[in-house]
Amino acid sequence: MAQDPQPLVNAEGESLTVDQALENLRQTADTGLRYYAAWWLGRFRVATPEAIAGLVLALEDEGDRAPDGGYPLRRNAARALGKLGDRTVVPALIQCLDCNDYYVRESAAQALESLGDPQAIPALRSLLAGGVAAAVAVPDKPHLVQPYNAVLEALGTLGATDAIDEISSFLEHEVAQVQNAATRALYQLTGEAAYCDRLVQRLQEPNLQLRRSAMMDLGAIGYLPAAQPIAATLAENSLKLIALQGVLESHLRQTGFPKAGLTDDARQVLALMDELL
Questions:
Q1: How many other C-beta atoms lie within 10 A of the C-beta of residue 256?
Q2: Cβ distance 160 to 189 under 8 Å?
Q3: Among 266, 201, 214, which Cα is nearest to 240's?
Q4: Dihedral angle computed from the Cα positions of residues 234, 237, 238 and 242, in that order, rounded to the nearest 10 degrees
Q5: What is the pTM for the complete model shown?
Q6: Radius of gyration of the chain from its Cα atoms, rounded to whole angstroms
């Protein structure tokens, strides 16, 4: 006799089966259940054809609307699809870059970065149209006209070398986090350490948010010389550990671990992590 699917439990102890999550995503009466189902499918990496099809359909949802007119379910569906590793959804996510909801566009850009498909580059570059002069704040909103951080980071990860000139202009943007995102992307696209050195200098900023931003960027790009400065940054140990883990994982990939074994540099990063625990 066939057994019921094994429930998967989230951090709050709530459990669903895959079938229950899919059913919740398909129904339209309870937007909260649909929103949670989309998150759940991404959180537990449920990459079945049914899950992917349901999440792609949710990218066009009109029923779940926020007070500001945004689309919460679409945002969660985009985030989930970015975690599932199926590049067949890239065209659907590219369409989301035209959504009038800033946070849908941001989630789609982040998902496209995660999926790593260069076909998304032209659509992402289009969001940089007008350059720094157009990258202004939306009146009465806590964000700029486009999710520039997510777009710049995605272009760096996707290897958009043709966009280097466009990205470079954002080094002069008035928002420091946007500068950081451009700096991170330019290091990925050029390999020039001077860009990372700019981020290392940001670790000394008096503003905690800027220190956090620079630290996470350095971890994301795995800049090994930043390990000691990250460990010494005035910020939460939990975030420093995440950044150092990124540095370590990048170094291990580059050195062929486990075949090549631990290098002295890897041991030093591990020692820094141990001190923070």
A1: 10
A2: yes
A3: 214
A4: 80
A5: 0.90
A6: 20
Could you give the CA distance from residue 176 to residue 218 in angstroms, rounded to a whole number?
Answer: 15
Q: What is the pLDDT along the chain (277 residues), one digit of tens a residue?
A: 334 445 555 445 567 899 999 999 998 789 999 999 999 999 999 999 999 999 999 999 999 999 989 999 999 999 999 999 999 999 999 999 999 999 999 999 999 999 999 999 999 999 999 999 999 999 999 999 999 999 999 999 999 999 999 999 999 999 999 999 999 999 999 999 999 999 999 999 999 999 999 999 999 999 999 999 999 999 999 999 999 999 999 988 888 776 557 889 999 999 999 999 9
Q: Which residue has the tokens 């631990």?
A: 262
Element (DSSP H or E) covering residue 8 = strand 8-9
From CA 201, how far away is CA 198, in angstroms rounded? 5
What is the Cβ-side half-sphere exposure of residue 199, based on CA atoms within 13 angstroms?
33
Amino acid in position 159:
G
- Give the integer Cα–Cα distance in Å for 23 and 276: 43
Six-digit token pair at 78?
């985009």
Beta bridge partner(s), residue 16: 8
Count of CB atoms situated within 10 Å of the CB of 54: 23
